[in-house]
């Protein structure tokens, strides 16, 4: 939203990009130290992200959700998946020592903390509900709060269940993090960043 639009392309030696208002950039496949694939909640539903980090610490982030304007996003999953799959193959071919990771342990810990807070809130609301059983105006407020917490449970459980980061084979990246069949509506990816 606050940055310029960036266009990526794969060349024989590097991931290159052009950014409006800035100079072009590149990250050589041989310099890539790590590739991380995640999924996260976005205005268009689940979105995907690929982060490539160089040995010098430079980063390139590619996302399947493209920001068009305030409140308007474009889902580019169809082109994102094949692009990232080929990028992983080229990095692995040029630098077999690079690390390929799916998911984010840091985000998993964050969701675990949110889950524990959720349990605490439910316990407090339940205790408060029993204290105000005969106070009708407050009873409705507590019922609404409990309902909101109940709606959040599936999201929290999915994120906590996904676990932290795991390594993946760069020649067979997880389809769920490329927009494949496992990422279709009704099916959730096994790793997140969200």
List the helices and strands and how they pair.
Blueprint: E1 6-10, E2 14-19, E3 25-28, E4 32-42, E5 45-54, E6 59-63, E7 65-69, E8 72-75, H1 77-94, E9 99-102, H2 105-131, H3 136-161, E10 166-167
Parallel strand pairs: 4-9
Antiparallel strand pairs: 1-2, 2-3, 4-5, 5-6, 7-8, 9-10
Helix pairs in contact: 2-3
Describe it.
The structure is a single chain. The protein folds into two domains: 6-104 and 165-183, Roll (PH-domain like), CATH 2.30.29; 106-160. It contains three helices and ten strands. The two termini are 17 Å apart. The protein has helices spanning 77-94, 105-131, 136-161; strands at 6-10, 14-19, 25-28, 32-42, 45-54, 59-63, 65-69, 72-75, 99-102, 166-167. It has a five-stranded mixed sheet with strand order 6-5-4-9-10, with helices on one face. Strands 1-2-3 form a three-stranded antiparallel sheet, with no helix packed on it. It is of the alpha+beta class.
